[in-house]
Each structure stands twice: as C-alpha cells, then as structure tokens.
Please model this.
Amino acid sequence: MFIKALKEKKKKISVIGLGYVGLPLALELAKKFSVIGLDISESRVEQMKKGVDPSNELEASAFLDKDIEFTSKTKDLKRAHFHIVAVPTPVDDHKVPNLRPLLSAAESVGKNLKKGDYVVFESTVYPGCTEEDCLPILEEKSGLKLGKDFKIGYSPERINPGDKEHTVDKILKVVSGSDEEALEVIAEVYGAIITAGIYKATTIKVAESAKVIENTQRDLNIAFMNELSMIFDTMDIDTNAVLEAAGTKWNFLPFSPGLVGGHCIGVDPYYLLHKATKLGFSPQVITSGRATNDGMPAFIAKRLVQMLIKKGKNPSQCKVLVLGITFKENVSDIRNSKVADLIKELMNFSVNVHLTDPHASPNEVAHEYGLTMIDEISKNYDAVIAAVCHEQYKKLDQGYFKSIMNGDPILMDLKAMYPTPPENGLEIWRL
Ligand SMILES: NC(=O)c1ccc[n+]([C@@H]2O[C@H](COP(=O)([O-])OP(=O)(O)OC[C@H]3O[C@@H](n4cnc5c(N)ncnc54)[C@H](O)[C@@H]3O)[C@@H](O)[C@H]2O)c1
Model:
C-alpha cells in the first residue's frame, strides 16, 4: 500500500518549489510524512535550513519538529516517491504564459522518476497543461510510461498569503488523478493533512479549469466594480455608498473596485486566454475585464492630475506620497504591483512621488521597478494616495493626513479605508 509506506516513512514526499505555496504545504506534510523540500534557489534553501521563511509568511515555530530536509540538488528527488510541483507560472512581458519554471521542474522530476512514483502538479495552469505539456517531459526524461510505470495528478492551491485564518490545512482541496487509483492515492495523501476536506474532480482538466476560473471570476467581478467606479466618478456619485446600498439585496455579490496586481488574479486569466486563443476562440468578456483592470493605474493617475490642476497647482511642482506598493495588504510580495504602474504614470506627468511601505523591501522595489523608497515621510504633500490596506495605514486618521499635507490637500483613498465626509478642508477621492 502506497499510503502505508508513506505513513511508515518507508517512502518520501518531495515538494518542488518552496515559495508562498510550496513551503507551507511541505511543512504541513512534514508533520505526518518524511519530506524533501527542493528549491533551485540556494540562498532560499540556506534560509529555510535556518528556519527562516524567505517569503516572510511563516514564523520560525512553523519549522520546529518537522521531518523535512531542504535541498537545492535535484538528484535528491531520486529518494522520493510522491512528488508535488509548486513552482511559479508567470506571464512574460507580452502576457503570454511563461512555462519555463514548470517545464524545468518537470524535467528535474522526470530525470529522477522511478516505477511506482506519483507526480502531482499544484501550479496554476491552463486546462490541458499537465497532460499536454508536463507529461511528455516526464515520460521523455524518465523513459517510463504513464499508467504502466507512474501516475500523475493535479491539485490546485488556494492559499491566500497574509491570511492567518485560512491556512493550507483549512482550505478544502480539489484533487484529480490520471486514473481511479491515482485519484484515490492522491486524495489519501492530501486527506492526511487537510482538515477542511477533499474534493475529487472527475479529470485533471476539470481540476485545472476550476482553479483558473476561480481567479478569472474574481478578476471579472472586480473589473465590473472598476467600470462602475469610473462611470460614477463622472457623475460625482460615491461608488462605495452605492455598493453598500445595493448590498442590502440578498443576491448582490460583495466586490469592491481596486487595483488588481499580484501573481494570481491579474495573471491566471491570461493562461485561460492563451489556451482559448490557441484553440481559435476569441474570448471577449475575459479580455475586456483584464483591459479594464490593467487600465486602472492610468485612470487614477489622470484623475489626480486633473484634481491638482483644478486646484490651480502645477503637477510638475507637486509632491505626492504613496502609501503601500505590495500587491495586497499585510504581505511583502511586490510582484506585479499595480501601484508601481500608478507611480510610473504619475512620474510621466512629472509629479514628484514619495513611496513608502512598511512591508516591502526597498532593495526588491529598486530591483523590480527601479523605484527608490523614502526613509522617512516628510511634510507639505499636495496629495497622499493610500494604495494598500496595511494594518499600519488603517490606523491613520484625517488629522494625521492634514499634518503632513500643505493647503488644499487631496487624499486618494483607493481602499476606502477612511471614513467620509472629510474634515478640515481635506478632499477625499475614492474609487
Ligand atoms: N501565492 C499564491 O497566493 C498562490 C495561490 C494559489 C496558487 N498559486 C500558484 O502556485 C504556484 C507557485 O506560486 P508561489 O506564489 O508559491 O511562487 P513563488 O514564486 O513564491 O515560489 C516559487 C518557488 O519555486 C522556486 N522554483 C522556481 N523554479 C524552480 C524549479 N524549476 N525547481 C525548483 N524550484 C523552483 C523558486 O525559487 C521559488 O522559491 C504558481 O503557479 C501560482 O500561480 C499561488
């Protein structure tokens, strides 16, 4: 029995890619099983060996009493029999899926695959990727055949970085397998650590599709809110007040306008679009939602410049403070930050922008976006853009904003964090 051998630690589990998804999963598995955690980044592996999460999500205590061995050597995969791949699946500059990390991970697993092994992919992909792109690499590199020699599956991850409540074990897990037996074994392995339950999808493609549409649906709902906020802005109607009123109906869905950054919601729809387009289909709704959300930084920058000019100010002589650059609240992840796009739009209007964020690393921000963060918030700002809903920013009040701004100030409250109406001549603009 495969699961028995895993539980008795006669066989090991490997997790390939120890980022936001892979590390918490590997540590959870290491409570019950013997785990090999592989990451190509030696510096990240060195940190994990010292009990430090390079993604700043987990405390040192999460590493205690776990049967896990961290490595950057792919040949160590030879000693494992159940492999889980959780490497990044980004898009390139043209918004086309970049499968390089995934295919290279499949190659590493393939070279070390043995008869009787299982390989489960967790990375978010388009429907068909596991069987059409990853499987051929596994077979070619191992010389083994699916079904006869080894089995595969797909189990999407739903982890929500920064969320201390919905940890990996408390999120219902969708699993799928290349045949009935694979499905049962994969469900048993995850079932040993996930307390929220297991959902067995009928096929690998169904599980892949389910994941990609979860985030696409969110993208579209937010795009609708953003479109509404642009319409209401032209009529000087407060979108948040409208949403609160509409939300009193039992079936009105609670979404808010905002910047859609990060590596999931703003990226995953491109995977679905890529596959659909390849098949000759031209999705209108998904494309339109993406365009709306990607256009928000330019819209917000333009609105601020209009407001400054209306106040008789020359934007090129204005100083604007931006609070927050991470892709969401209370995390350090700055990948695909739409706040960075907003800052660049403002810089194109020659606005002098000061950026600060208690969670973001100044080095990473400089490396990723060429932006320098300020050491200390100064005074006399013409406007403040509260862009990310970090706990530290939620505590600020209008009195504080007035104290760091000059006459006739504007507060752009992109996350509707602060109560209205404004006091003491502060103008508050919300999406
Ligand atoms: N972060 C999330 O909130 C989230 C949620 C659900 C699903 N996902 C999906 O999970 C996957 C992983 O995302 P993430 O946020 O954990 O990524 P990440 O960038 O945080 O981590 C990925 C890790 O994989 C390593 N890596 C890259 N290529 C490798 C290779 N060939 N072999 C071994 N290691 C390699 C990197 O060094 C990095 O440490 C993606 O497909 C993502 O879309 C992410």
In short: The first helix runs from residue 2 to 7.
